[in-house]
Design goal:
Mean pLDDT: 82
Low-confidence stretches: 1-27, 30-34, 36-46, 402-419, 659-663
Helix content: over 70%
Number of helices: 27
Number of strands: 7
Largest sheet: 5 strands, mixed
CATH topology of one domain: Alpha-Beta Plaits
CATH class of one domain: Alpha Beta
Strand order of the largest sheet: 2-3-1-6-7
Structural class: mainly alpha
Strand content: 5-15%
Length: about 675
Amino acid sequence: MAVWSARPSRPLFPGRRRVYNGAMKRIPAWILAAGLLSILLPAAPPAPDCRTLAGEAERLCDTAPREALAKIEAARRCLAGHEDPRLACRLTGIEGRARLNLGDTAAARQRFAEQARQADRLGDDGLKAAAALDQGLLEKSLSRYPEAAAACRRGLELYERIGDRSGTAQALNQLGNIADDLGQYYQAIDDYLRSLRLAEQLGDPGRIARLQNNIGIIHFKLKEYDAALASYGQAMAFEAGQGNQRRLANLENNIGLVHFEQKHFAEAAEHYRRALELERRLGSPSGVGNSLTSLGEVEQALGKPEQAIALYRQALPLAVEARDSWGEALIHADLAASLAATGRLAEAHDEAEKSLELARTTAAPDLEMTSRRALADILARRGRPVEALTQFRAYHDLYERTFNDETRRRTGDLQARYEAERHRREVEALRQQQTIQDLQADRNRLLIRALGLGLLLLAALVVVVLGNLRHKARANALIAHQNEELTDAYHRLEEAARTDPLTRLANRRDVHERLENERVRSERSHKAFAIVLSDIDHFKAINDRWGHEAGDRVLVAVAETMRRTLRKQDVVGRWGGEEFIWVLPETPLEGARLLAEKIRALIHEQSVRLGETEIRVTLTFGVSAYDHPMDFEHCIRLADQALYRGKEAGRDRVEVAAPPLTSPAAG
């Protein structure tokens, strides 16, 4: 809310003060009195039209930035002669966002800096928070992700401090976009869902649509295409009544990406063309370039490299104009692939070099890997194997940040397999014994029937027969009791054979059996599962310093945190010593990484109390995914290798077996 100043307004047209003073004698007294009153009385608050114009400018900022600038100028003319520094600060931020959407980064930076100075002078936390979020938008557009995240976190803290739910939702959405770009999908989805809950409480359909779009992007990156289309469909439904052409263009492009990944190229092209039409209407160089690039990828996938090259060459200057280094790098990589397909290897080589140079300036390792792999392939085709090998090794080094060939537990695996086989034989023996008992019970029933018939023939033997029946009844009761005890003993044996006595988790043998069952089920259903290995950091030091009782308490506390957090269908077991293993059915690699990161953070924040001593505990995790055809033992080794890399890299971290994928456009 604006606070009106009680100070007199500054005189209009100050440059003419001397003229008025020189003509003072010729001005009637009533005009002088009116002028004096206008100086002494406070300025009137700005008319409601000023705020209306500012609101219209803000709504047009993303969809029609040039129209937004016209509205901003109209609002400033409306403010002339009035004093509302808060509205002026807000208009400065809106202008910065409009210029950023037009690709004028320098002008946007200047306006955002002025907005921050105005907010600081006013001491208004709401305006400071808005300025911080606008600075975050600028830094993200320049791929300066640490600076963008820091600015958005400042804005979030300020909005939460003053209880502004709308601002809090916006800050969480921007933080989710940054985490998404960096491949931190667990953090991104957490931010988006927190923002979505606030948007639903506020009844804000436009924001709900943006968040459903962003959630759909996460599903897309995890290859959950049906879920992605469902989220995009909900976003479309909310956007239908909003008329936001920018977000509709993003949605069309994102839906096209899903169809492209599913090789539905005709449907993908149709959505890309709709996005292109909207982007041209909006006059967005970056958006037009992105849509042209997507259409080029469809042509390349259909085996039409010349048509693809033509589209890429149209898109490239637009990406340069918008200073979109990520998009520019992608276009050069796509051009390299299409030129190589036509045999123009020298040109392809130049494009791959440009792509690599740009990719290294971004924070996207997947883009650098794509560029290096493309360059390696082109160099090999040009008969330059040494240079090709150098590029491939650089590509492989990036890949090896999550992979190496170290193996540690093959002997333990063989022992666990042996114990599982022995347990299987014990269970089979118990089943055979139960079958024999069932046959004995059937025989007894037949004997009783025979004796009953004998009573009709041999009345004299009634007493003998009744005695025999009583004997058999006692025998049956004894057998039933023994069967009950045997069943009880079997269940206790089964539990003891499958359970670690300290943590009450599944032991190594039980995990092996359930892994085999999950492998069979996965191959039948064609649904992958994930394996996570974890190891308590510096566990030996805990035992050495505080004793084995402290070590046991740490193991029990860690096991309880895992048991409480994982799903009912997940398997969690003690793999040996201070190591634990999870088997996560129907869980992709990225989903397993997000879950491991969540539990790592939970344990990092906890401590184990021993008397007056608090013991801090951290774990290192290795994550892999089973993909048919694959021996699950190999899958365990991959997780173990990732765990070893985590230890080498400093502990208290999660290492996975594959890099994150490229990303579609966030809203």
